[in-house]
Amino acid sequence: MWPSMLFFVYLCSFQQAEAKPRCGGIFTAARGTLQTPGFPGPFPTPIHCEWVIDAQYLLTKNTTIVIYLTELFVFEGLKFTEYQVYDEGFHFNGRDLLVVNETNVIGAKTVETHQSYLVISLKLTTLDGTHLRVLDHFLNVFGFNVTYEIKEGAARTDVCNMMDCGFNGICYDHFT
């Protein structure tokens, strides 16, 4: 009886671990796309993810990490923080660049830093009341789909966000 009970408990815990969304990670490429699990669909909550853009090996005197907020629909639990050092268990010289809220979510187009690391942190306990475009299961969009680049100089000015697209379509950044 005990061996079969232990096997059942093991099987249940294995299935629970499988259901957890894969999100976040460390990104060292010069450009890329970051998104919430299953974007534009809903994702399981509670969720806590960190996307770390690591530019320490691409740094020059005038290097900038730029996030283009092309499709940003979440306005709670999301923040962008720069760090001089960001290692497992050790974070140095952190400063919040943008803490997304109902007011600034529609106006922000970019986040940029000259530090070595930019960390995007998403921490939500529920999807209820945390997104811009959710209305009775009609045209629902959850989370975000953003692009980043590590480049010389400042951010490009030819960028768009959901406001530029009128919330009607997909806003692409064709350069990253």
UniProtKB/TrEMBL annotation:
PROSITE patterns: CUB. The keyword Signal applies. Keywords: Disulfide bond, Signal. The keyword Cytoplasm does not apply. Residues 23-151 form the CUB domain. Transmembrane segments: none annotated. Coiled coil: none annotated. It comes from the Eukaryota. SUPFAM superfamilies: Spermadhesin, CUB domain. Gene3D superfamilies: Spermadhesin, CUB domain. InterPro entries: CUB_dom, Sperma_CUB_dom_sf. Residues 1-19 form the signal peptide. This is CUB domain-containing protein.
